[in-house]
Amino acid sequence: MLKKLMKYDLRAIGKYWFFIAALTLAICIFEGFLLRLSISLLGNGRVLWAVFGMIGFYFGMVSVSMTLPLTLILVFYRFYKQLYTDEGYLIFTLPVTRRQVLTSKTLSAIIWTILQLGVIGVGACSILLIAPPASENGAYFNSVIFSGLLSVLRLAWSDVGAWVIVYAVCALVFGLLCIWIAVGVAQLCITVGATVFKKFKLVAAIVIYGVANAFVLVVVDMLTSVSVILLADGFVDILAASGGVLQCVAFTLILLISCIMAAVVAVLVHLTTLDRIERKLSLS
């Protein structure tokens, strides 16, 4: 049943998200040409027009950055509507548990967040490809920036070798956990706002989210810092001071500690939200 819930959620958001994704890519491509034109104008001494171009580029980047919050607004409004309005009664007439519903909503939110971040990343790459002036061999698109990134990766590989892959995997896991935390905090705030306040539930949820998000970030940072400091008083500092492979092991341990702390916070937030739903809602 969880798979069917996921399919239903993804399909419902997808018809809106594909428009947002297409708009994001279109803006980024336009921004690439606009930045290229501004650089060309600046090189030809037409400073005023170049400034106007850069202002337009800035507003375009603001528009692109707003596509992620817009995606999340769609996701979380659907979460609120299906769990805490009359539509929620229809959802729970299906043979599903509240845990399955919450899990489906959480996975859906994480997926849409990752997809939109990916679209923004592709858009950023298109800007980096289009914006630089033509290469020396006359090619219209100049990949000089990507060549620089490859040089950085080669340098990192020559420095620490395959540990780069370990670092990348740990960083990816930590990033996914941070997305889970952000989604979980938003769901918890919506749940608290909907079950505690009788009026202005969404406004209350937004205010609670602002406070709770800052609090959770501080808690994760503090837990990670304290753990690293405690370990640094022991064997991690010895490993780090040894250099070579042992230094890489020490850095990996720090990354793993960060992942563990983030996982603990994410699970606690998720279970707290589920507990609020189980205790406060009489939907079965």
Q: Descriptors for this entry?
A:
284 residues, mainly alpha, 2 domains, 10 helices, 87% helix
How would you characterize this protein structure?
The model has no long low-confidence stretch (mean pLDDT 78). The two termini are 15 Å apart. The chain is mostly helical. The protein contains ten helices and no strands. The protein folds into two domains: 1-142, no CATH class; 160-284, no CATH class. It has helices at 2-43, 47-65, 67-84, 86-91, 98-130, 144-160, 163-196, 201-232, 235-242, 244-280.
Q: Quick gist of this model?
A:
The protein is an all-alpha fold.
Topology:
Blueprint lengths: L1 H42 L3 H19 L1 H18 L1 H6 L6 H33 L13 H17 L2 H34 L4 H32 L2 H8 L1 H37 L4
Strand content: under 5%
**Low-confidence spans: pLDDT under 50, at least 5 residues?**
none
Instruction: Tell me the structural class.
Output: mainly alpha
Order of helices and strands: HHHHHHHHHH
Rough outline: globular
Counting structural domains, the number is: 2
Task: Evaluate the radius of gyration.
Answer: 23 Å
Number of strand elements: 0
- Describe the sheet with the most strands: none
Tell me the span between the first and last alpha carbons: 15 Å
**Separate helix tally:** 10
What share of residues is helical?
A: over 70%
The whole-number mean of residue pLDDT values reads 78
